[in-house]
Amino acid sequence: MMAADQTVHGVPPSLSAKVVGSFAYLTVRDRLPTILTKVIDTIHRNKNKFFEEYGEEGIQAEKQTIGLLSKMRNELQTDKPVIPLTDSLQDAECWNQYLQKHQKLHGDQESVSWFKSPWLYVECYMYRRIHEALWLNPPISDYDVFNEGKTQSFFESQQAVMTICTHLEGVNSNIENLSKNQLFEHFDKLLQVSLWGNKCDLSISAGQDNSQKTSPIDSLVSLQPLILVNDSNTVWSTLISAQTHARSEKTTVRVDIVLDNAGFELVTDLVLADFLVSSGLAHEVHFHGKSIPWFVSDVTAHDFQWTIQQTMASNHKCMSKIGYQWKSHLKDGVWSYHDHPFWTQPHEFCDMAADAPDLYANLQGADLVLFKGDLNYRKLVGDRDWDHTVGFGTALQGFGPAPLCSLRTLKANVQVGLQPGQAEKLTSHEPDWMTCSKYAVIQFYSSKAEQKD
Ligand code: F6P
Ligand code: MG
């Protein structure tokens, strides 16, 4: 067995496609090539657009990008070694060092390759190579190949977006008169709406429509039993004590949201952030997005601004009003959008303090950090084959810049912090409970508190 396979100091091995038949294996064998093929098709379909914009140069760039992507698809499908990046983007060196580190772990006999290396690493690497293929081919370097899908998924969720905006407007219009209990009930609902918004990602569906079609509010009661860990009470009490502390110290409460997908999920996150600010539970919300197109549907700065613009431009009165409110939150600095290259690197978050100390220090300024989605969860717990009853705090392996909470629907076979027997019971009824995105967690950790661990 290689070093990377072994349980070192109680840390279990990384999930990997080398386990034939595992979800990681099926993802690398089937889903990633499907996503790559769609990327190639999208670029090809836009050939005329590139020609119109850039003439012959656009056509050449399209051809060469497709050539690079087809080559990568072949490398993936034939389990070739992972190769260094050749663009000179800011993070390329870091990626190449990461490769060297993994090569050392593998030893001299075997190369780091698509099926033999940690799944988290190769999956992230594929998206970075897509970026490289485009980047190396100006004038289409900045083309977001996932933009069409993200835009479409926003429009396909329109009804649900209107419903949630109307709901928010109703809550906000009476917010001053609400008792603490009523405020908690609204908070709890909107936290769950944001949680279930994470069902709508386009990576698990390999780009197929996965938008929100039903009312996000009406379905909450029936979805409740599917929340396997629900720490919403602790999240609430964290906010309340931050508020009390801020009042006595004359400071502010800051909540950070590490975003996941554009489309309906982003709207649910903005709605939650709006409520946090309108209710006075938070004075500032920092959103963290991706600096390059990522995992098909993840939010970039462009997606973030576009979504707010679209909300403002809606014919639906409530939606438009709320869109304007969001714009003024941004203008007033109550909301801010941030990106950092670390979010689009393959590292487990326990590496953040050493590898991105500026980002770690920044998150330490938050009173609460909400991590949206499956990929963030995988990175929080290192995408390892943990026993399901291991505590969340243990699986975080020292990561804890601030009190944090993962809002995640399960789409990868890693889950910690369950009760003894809970996983076994789920497996006996539904063997794919960890990957079917039917189940979810609201899982909290704080290094300060009396731990649940
Ligand atoms: O596990 C399936 C998967 O597509 C992973 O590739 C990735 O971790 C995840 O789902 C993406 O989901 P999310 O958008 O929730 O991070
Ligand atoms: Mg995503």
From TrEMBL:
It comes from Pagothenia borchgrevinki (Bald rockcod). Residues 27-426 form the Damage-control phosphatase ARMT1-like metal-binding domain. Signal peptide: none annotated. Coiled coil: none annotated. Gene3D superfamilies: 1.20.930.60, Uncharacterised protein PF01937, DUF89, domain 3 (3.40.50.10880). Belongs to the damage-control phosphatase family. Sugar phosphate phosphatase III subfamily. Its EC number is 2.1.1.-, 3.1.3.-. One of its GO terms (molecular function) is metal ion binding. This is Sugar phosphate phosphatase. GO terms for biological process: methylation. Subfamily III proteins have a conserved RTxK motif about 40-50 residues from the C-terminus; the threonine may be replaced by serine or cysteine. SUPFAM superfamilies: AF1104-like. Keywords: Hydrolase, Manganese, Metal-binding, Methyltransferase, Nickel, S-adenosyl-L-methionine, Transferase. InterPro entries: ARMT-1-like_metal-bd_sf (IPR036075), ARMT1 (IPR039763), ARMT1-like_metal-bd (IPR002791). Metal-dependent phosphatase that shows phosphatase activity against several substrates, including fructose-1-phosphate and fructose-6-phosphate. Its preference for fructose-1-phosphate, a strong glycating agent that causes DNA damage rather than a canonical yeast metabolite, suggests a damage-control function in hexose phosphate metabolism. Has also been shown to have O-methyltransferase activity that methylates glutamate residues of target proteins to form gamma-glutamyl methyl ester residues. Possibly methylates PCNA, suggesting it is involved in the DNA damage response. It catalyses: beta-D-fructose 1-phosphate + H2O = D-fructose + phosphate; L-glutamyl-[protein] + S-adenosyl-L-methionine = [protein]-L-glutamate 5-O-methyl ester + S-adenosyl-L-homocysteine; beta-D-fructose 6-phosphate = dihydroxyacetone + D-glyceraldehyde 3-phosphate. Pfam families: ARMT1-like_dom. It comes from the Eukaryota. Its cofactor is Mn(2+); Ni(2+).
